[in-house]
Design brief:
With 190 residues, this protein is an alpha+beta fold. The chain has helices spanning 17-28, 37-50, 86-93, 95-102, 122-131, 148-156; strands at 3-8, 57-63, 66-75, 106-113, 139-144, 160-161, 172-176. A seven-stranded mixed beta sheet has the order 1-2-3-4-5-7-6, with helices on both faces. It starts with a strand and ends in a 14-residue tail after the last strand.
C-alpha cells in the first residue's frame, strides 16, 4: 500500500475531476458536513474556474492507483471575494484585518480525504503540499464549526483560529497557518 502526493499547478488537475468529485462525496456527504451530491457537482464546476486563478495549487494523494485525497488553494485576490462563505470571514475579521491578513495570502479552498484513509497522515501531507510555498508563509482557511474533528486537526498542525462563531455555535471560523506572521496578532480564544 504505497501512497504518493503530487502537486499540480494549473489545468492539468482537471484530468482527475471525476476522481476528485468522488473523494468530495465520500468526505463531505456524511456527518458532520451532510452535503448532498449537488454540492459535489458544484465543486467540480468550480474547479474548472479555480485552476485559472493566480497561485492555483492542488495536491492529490494516490494510494495503489486510486485517488484518496486532495487539497486545492490559490492566492486570495484584492478585493476580497464576496461569494460562498467569504462575507462571514470578512465580517468576523473586519475590513482592515481581512485585507492585511487574507488578501495576497494562500487561501485553502478544499481539503478532503476518503473516510477509510483518515488518520493516515494524508490530510497533513496534502495541507503541507499546498501551503509550503505560500507567499511569506501567509496561508489561511475557513471551516465550519460543525467540524470539530477538522478544527482539532488544524490546531494540532499549528493553525490559529482568529474568528469566533456566533453564540449559537453555528457558522465558520478563519484559521491562519503556522507560518502566517499575523497569527500572534489574533485575539486569544474565548
Amino acid at each position: 500500500m504505497t501512497c504518493g502526493i503530487r502537486v499540480h499547478r494549473g489545468p492539468g488537475v482537471l484530468a482527475y475531476t471525476e476522481a476528485l468529485r468522488s473523494v468530495y462525496v465520500d468526505a463531505f456527504c456524511a456527518p458532520p458536513w451532510n452535503e448532498d451530491e449537488e454540492r459535489a457537482t458544484e465543486f467540480a464546476a468550480r474547479l474548472r474556474v479555480d485552476v485559472g486563478r493566480p497561485g492555483f495549487t492542488a495536491a492529490t494523494a494516490v494510494r495503489d492507483g486510486e485517488l484518496v485525497g486532495f487539497a486545492t488553494a490559490w492566492t486570495t485576490p484584492v478585493p476580497f471575494p464576496t461569494d460562498r462563505c467569504h462575507p462571514q470571514a470578512a465580517a468576523g475579521l473586519g475590513a482592515g484585518r481581512t485585507a492585511d491578513w487574507l488578501c495576497g495570502a494562500r487561501g485553502i479552498d478544499e481539503l478532503a480525504v476518503r473516510r477509510a484513509d483518515r488518520g493516515s497522515g494524508l490530510a497533513g501531507g496534502l495541507l503541507d503540499a499546498v501551503t509550503e510555498d505560500a507567499p511569506g508563509g501567509r496561508a489561511w482557511l475557513l471551516t465550519s464549526v460543525r467540524g470539530g474533528r477538522a478544527l482539532a486537526f488544524y490546531r494540532r498542525r499549528g493553525w490559529t483560529q482568529v474568528t469566533h462563531p456566533s453564540p449559537d455555535g453555528r457558522g465558520i471560523v478563519v484559521l491562519l497557518g503556522p507560518r502566517h506572521p499575523a497569527r500572534f496578532s489574533a485575539p486569544l480564544p474565548l
